[in-house]
């Protein structure tokens, strides 16, 4: 079957950084689904894993952790899906990714594709949707019912990116006052169109901008960009007993002691934790994806697809990676259809 992989970890400008390959079509065993991939999306995790490093691979390493497709085959222990079902998922970073015509994924981290969306629209959602949901509701422990959140606020750093585009929608749906960071006219508009009540510029100190909105502090902060860079602003603007979640690794140690006098909570969100460690609640990702599909069906959440490339091949994936590495993308880039 066709796939796109790498043997060496190279700058994306190098034509060998991602190459078209032929690999064996796998077979579903256990609780695995074999999915015929119809569309894939790219994420920062793809570019980080592909980034230049000395090691080389003897067999092609397949990236890609956002896919939508049709179940081709189910393993003998599967209980949730059957052949012909349309699905969407992010998969596991410990297994080969979805840059391939057929892909194996454990059914407990797969959702039923939203019926109102096509495959490209659906492929834009799983990784960012799961990250946003887990960050808001599992890590920050925000109540999903809007009533208790009527007087609470959240600052989302990086509101127009992939995760931010979903997080603003979910936070708005949960009844929070949503402040997103954005610095360009197009990203400000995007953030507000997707649920942000206000925006502030992440290139400027936060406190004065929040004060201009009538806020001394915020109850929650969801950091989706450059934790190191924004740390002092985060410490200054989090409310006493507030909660902070970040998805972005740091280049050095954080001064957690700076939060002590506020009794503030700091927690990480890594969407692959459940699948990496096969946690006892791993099936929650199946439930989250199905819940997101229901919210999409009812019009409460929308896809964040902004650009489509076709077909799925190495040249187009190199283009998508370059766009993502520029740091200027809004929403999600999706590739569809293998030739």
UniProtKB/TrEMBL annotation:
A Pfam family the protein falls into: ADH_N
GO terms for MF: oxidoreductase activity; zinc ion binding
Residue ranges annotated for the Enoyl reductase (ER) domain, each copy included: 13-335
Keyword line: Metal-binding, NADP, Oxidoreductase, Zinc
SUPFAM superfamilies, A to Z: GroES-like, NAD(P)-binding Rossmann-fold domains
UniProt xrefs under InterPro entries: ADH-like_N (IPR013154), ADH_Zn_typ-1 (IPR014182), ER (IPR020843), GroES-like_sf (IPR011032), NAD(P)-bd_dom_sf (IPR036291), Zinc-ADH_QOR/CCCR (IPR051603)
Family assignment from sequence similarity: Belongs to the zinc-containing alcohol dehydrogenase family. Quinone oxidoreductase subfamily.
Name the record gives this protein: Zinc-type alcohol dehydrogenase-like protein
Source species: Dictyobacter kobayashii
């Amino acid at each position: 079957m066709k796939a796109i992989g790498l043997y060496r970890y190279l700058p994306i400008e190098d034509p060998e950084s991602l190459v078209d390959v032929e690999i064996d079509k796998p077979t579903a065993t256990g609780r695995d689904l074999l999915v015929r991939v119809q569309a894939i999306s790219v994420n920062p995790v793809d570019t980080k894993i592909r980034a230049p490093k000395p090691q080389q691979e003897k067999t092609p390493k397949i990236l890609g952790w956002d896919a939508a497709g049709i179940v081709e085959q189910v393993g003998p222990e599967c209980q949730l899906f059957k052949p012909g079902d349309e699905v969407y998922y992010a998969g596991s970073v410990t297994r080969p990714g979805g840059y391939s015509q057929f892909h194996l994924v454990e059914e407990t981290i797969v959702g039923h594709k939203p019926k109102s969306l096509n495959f490209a629209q659906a492929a834009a959602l799983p990784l960012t949707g799961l990250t946003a949901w887990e960050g808001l509701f599992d890590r920050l422990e925000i109540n999903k019912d809007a009533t208790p959140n009527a007087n609470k606020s959240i600052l989302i750093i990086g509101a127009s990116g992939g995760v931010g585009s979903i997080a603003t929608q979910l936070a708005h749906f949960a009844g929070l006052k949503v402040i997103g960071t954005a610095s360009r006219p197009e990203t400000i508009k995007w953030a507000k169109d997707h649920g942000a009540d206000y925006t502030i510029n992440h290139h400027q100190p936060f406190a004065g901008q929040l004060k201009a909105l009538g806020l001394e502090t915020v109850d929650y902060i969801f950091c989706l960009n450059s934790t190191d860079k924004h740390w002092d602003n985060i410490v200054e603007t989090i409310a006493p007993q507030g909660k902070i979640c970040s998805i972005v690794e740091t280049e050095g140690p954080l001064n957690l002691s700076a939060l002590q006098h506020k009794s503030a909570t700091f927690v990480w969100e890594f969407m692959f934790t459940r699948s990496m460690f096969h946690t006892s609640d791993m099936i929650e990702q199946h439930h989250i994806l199905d819940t997101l599909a229901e919210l999409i069906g009812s019009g409460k959440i929308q896809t964040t697809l902004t650009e489509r490339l076709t077909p799925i091949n190495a040249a187009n994936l190199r283009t998508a990676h370059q766009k993502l590495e520029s740091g200027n993308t809004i929403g999600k880039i999706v590739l569809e259809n293998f030739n």
